[in-house]
Structure formats: structure tokens, C-alpha cells
Amino acid sequence: xxxxxxxxxxxxxxxxxxxxxxxxxxxxxxxxxxxxxxxxxxxxxxxxxxxxxxxxxxxxxxxxxxxxxxxxxxxxxxxxxxxxxxxxxxxxxxxxxxxxxxxxxxxxxxxxxxxxxxxxxxxxxxxxxxxxxxxxxxxxxxxxxxxxxxxxxxxxxxxxxxxxxxxxxxxxxxxxxxxxxxxxxxxxxxxxxxxxxxxxxxxxxxxxxxxxxxxxxxxxxxxxxxxxxxxxxxxxxxxxxxxxxxxxxxxxxxxxxxxxxxxxxxxxxxxxxxxxxxxxxxxxxxxxxxxxxxxxxxxxxxxxxxxxxxxxxxxxxxxxxxxxxxxxxxxxxxxxxxxxxxxxxxxxxxxxxxxxxxxxxxxxxxxxxxxxxxxxxxxxxxxxxxxxxxxxxxxxxxxxxxxxxxxxxxxxxxxxxxxxxx
Length: 422
Description:
This protein has helices at about 80-110, 120-140, 150, 155-175, 185-190, 190-200, 210-225, 240-270, 280-295, 300-305, 310-325, 340-360, 365-380, 395-410; strands spanning about 10-15, 70-75. It is mostly helical.
């Protein structure tokens, strides 16, 4: 089960008042390891202190001299712990990549019966998340997995996540309606650049030159692979500058939300005295606030999709009828409700896996894993599939882009000399 990836590999030891000592070490990967390990010194579970300049940095109990210091260290078998943490990140990264590919494929298949109702599918998944996540959260709360202290965490951060994700949906939907299809995944690759910049600004994280270069190579590889079947020179000809700029802004909103999620996990480690925050607390409250702000933006979103707001109820009713595939006189709805439900299930599994990867590594690592799935997804979607019998040919640039992507991942994972904070 994907939930097993959330098991912590680190023990927190309460130390009598002494100077704070952080024992850092590097998780080494073979150059052929596919996915993705961060240096332990950059792992949010190991750094419990944020620079005071962080705009999200609140009153932190570990700044008080009365608060016991925490030291993160390996146990007696620290080599085994390091190997275990490395293996955990690799396994969870691989699961995330697989689920990302399956999610993209089922999204395309789900739009076969709902080709005329993509806005209905988007709203159904948004509000469906709230019911599903809060139901799981309630079950885990009753089982004692989720504690009162977790529920009592400040909701302002979850509200910020919801606002940013809702704005990301609104701006992304507005620009996607005006941009050619191949341009959308290309422009979305700026997401990784936003994450690097925001994690440096908000989390105070520092990246080595090879990590920065590796991330840019991953983005370049995805761009090369995705652009392989299109005429890039004329892709945005005749398109007003506002629309690609709005798509780039959408990526900034989404990247900001992912960084705040990472911050929530790091901050919760201090507030919960070293206990790891359950991912369904973040999923539930983040999705709840997102649904709230999407609801407030619904008139704007419907107009972006070319649906006048007065006609929205009848559109949603028709979409629900096609989704349920009620009766035999609904043309073009073959495959419903099975395909949309499979997409919903894999999308939830992917979101859980992605957030779990943020929890045990970082937002940038999770983005690298998601980006690695893009060329694989394109290749799978080029094959004949049920309900999509027509295939597609890929140019040699697709393979070239995949090689660049793999080089970026390998460069990002080059082991660095271990450093100790004195």
C-alpha cells in the first residue's frame, strides 16, 4: 500500500540543554538509481529551523531557550538507516512515477465519454476530493492515527494552499482555453523553476550547482520530448502575450501551494514534538479550502470555459447524465461511468503518493518524479488503447528529450561530500 511509504526512518532524541548539534550525512545513490534522493542535510525532516526572514515563519517554540533542543541523528546502525531512507525515497518515487503515468492515461480515457463535459469532470473531482479525503480523515481520527494536535494546527496555511490552488485552476483554465494544446505542457515546465526559487525564498533551502543544472536539464528534456511532434516555431504565432504569461502565473500559484505544503510538514515536526503529520490532514483541509475558493470563482471559471453562468446548472445536469450514462439514448458516452471513476481513483492515489513524497523528501523531488512521467505518458498515449485505437508516431526528438531528462536526474543525484554543522 502507498501508505507504507510514510513510515519515518528517523528517531528524534530529546537532549538535555546543550549546544544544538545536527549530524548530517549524505544519502548515496548509484548513478543508475532511477529516482530521486536529496541530501539529508536538505531534507525537511532533518532541518527544524527556518531562517527568520521566511515570510511564513511564525513564532517557533524551538527559538526559546526554555525549549529542549532536538538532535536528529542516526541510530547505532546509521549506515542501515541511511540505506533505508534512500530506499524509501526510491520506492516512493517509483510509485509516484507509475501512478502519474496511469493518472495521465486515465485522464485522457475519461475524456472520451466526457469529451463535451471537461468542466464537469474538473468540478466533480474538485468537490469529490473533499468528501473522500474528509471521510478518510474521520476514519483515521477515530482509529487514533490522526490526533487532536494535528487537527488543531493553524488553518491559515491550509487556507493559503486552497487560495493558491484555486487561483492556479482559474488562471490555468483561462489560458488553456486560448493556447494550442502542445504549448500547455511546455509552459507548465516552468513549475520546477518556480519551486526552486520559492523553496529558496520561503524555506531557506540551498541547492548545489549540479542540482540546479540537473533540474533545468529535466525541464529541458521534458520540453524537447513534448515538443517533438509539433512545429515549435509557429506554435504561439498569433497568440496574445497575456495567455502564455497567465499559464506561467498558474504554475507559480501551484508551485507556491506545494512549497507551503512542505513548510506545513516541517513546521508540524516542531509543533508535534517530532511526530510526523498525517498526510490526510493536509489533503483534507487543503482540498476543502480549494473547493471553497473554486466555488467562489465558479462564475469566472464557467465563462473561461465558454459556459455562460445562467446555463451552468443545465450544463452540469447534462454532464452528470453522461457521467452516469443513464439510459441508452445518450450519444458519445460509451465508457462511462467506468473510465471517469478509474481516473478519479488513480488521481486520488497519485495525489496521496505525491504528497507523501513531499513529506519524506521535498517538493522539488516530487516535481522531478512527476516530470519524469511526462515522456513516458506521451509514449503510452501514442500506442493504440481501448477507446483510443488510433496511435501516433513520435519523432527522434522524443528519444533525445528522454535522454536529456535522464541526464538531468543523474546530475541531480550526484553524491555531495558530507558536511557537518559545527
